[in-house]
Design a protein that fits this description.
By secondary structure, the protein is α+β, with helices and mostly antiparallel strands. It has 2 domains: about 1-30; about 35-180, no CATH class. Helices cover about 30% and strands about 25% of the residues. Strands 1, 2, 3, 4, 5, 6 and 7 form a 7-stranded antiparallel β-sheet that branches. α4 (about 115-120) runs antiparallel to α5 (about 160-165). It is elongated and about 55 Å long.
């Protein structure tokens, strides 16, 4: 009888510990998620375009740069990830070529002291008002990258100012979706 009590007690202890582990992981899920590290960043990645309300035109052949991060887990950089560059992705200008008019995505690469940016992102709101906010990748020295939460720049104290304080290294407009077809025989200008 005493043995049955010890077995019952042991089973109850195991179940209680399992419940604590589930509660701990649920609490962890409710907090800030940790981002998945990818080899490179792209403003043409599906999760970025989805949040910006864009989709890649079928005529643009997918390449590794386009498909990078398709299944990216967004969130805070994992422990040990040292960001030294930022890639900001946002809706760009209308581009024109011989095919017609294109919606674009603007990729802006920034460098500088990222400390204020990272501190502000930790205090970011989870709601964006007035349309999608810029989508932000953090890159380390080897070009490994993490994609922040879609709302990371919205409503965060000082994040916009921190981004403005960084040095612009490069700005590129990538065509994404054909809006107006120039049609056969016409020349776009």
């Amino acid at each position: 009888m005493a043995r049955a009590g010890r077995v019952t007690g042991a089973v109850a202890l195991v179940l209680a510990l399992a419940g604590c582990a589930d509660a701990a992981s649920a609490g962890q899920d409710a907090g800030a998620a940790t981002a998945e590290v990818h080899a490179g960043a792209s403003c043409l990645a599906a999760p970025v375009l989805d949040v910006l309300g864009l989709s890649l035109d079928p005529s643009l052949a997918p390449s590794p740069a386009v498909t990078a991060g398709v299944e990216t887990a967004r969130g805070a950089p994992p422990e040990g990830f040292v960001a030294d560059t930022v890639l900001v992705c946002e809706r760009g200008a209308t581009l024109r070529d011989s095919a017609g008019e294109w919606r674009s995505v603007r990729a802006t690469r920034l460098e500088g002291d990222l400390t204020p940016l990272l501190a502000g992102v930790d205090r970011a709101s989870t709601v964006c008002t007035g349309g999608p906010g810029p989508q932000v990748w953090l890159l380390d020295a080897l070009e490994d990258a993490v994609l922040l939460e879609p709302w990371a720049v919205c409503g965060a104290d000082g994040v916009a100012a921190a981004l403005d304080d960084l040095d612009v290294v490069a700005v590129t407009e990538h065509p994404v979706a054909l809006v107006t077809d120039a049609g056969p025989g016409s020349v776009a200008g």
